[in-house]
Please model this.
Amino acid sequence: VLEAGAQFGEDTAWMSEMWPNGTIYAFEPSPESYPSLSQIASQHKNIVIAQLALSNNIGEFPFYLAGGAS
Model:
């Protein structure tokens, strides 16, 4: 499962339990929510996380938070 915008990991944990034989690839660029996602991922063998945003462009770009949402 590819989860773009995993936020705090609530849905990530649910998907991990729903598909225990699958792998959840969770992406979350926000420095505010990534630590929670990381903690949840450490409790599940089938979650792979990356502190990155997904785009159709290659490179580094500014990341702006707007009211807690990205």
Summary: The CA atoms of residues 5 and 53 lie 8 Å apart. The chain has a mean pLDDT of 93. The longest strand covers residues 24-27.
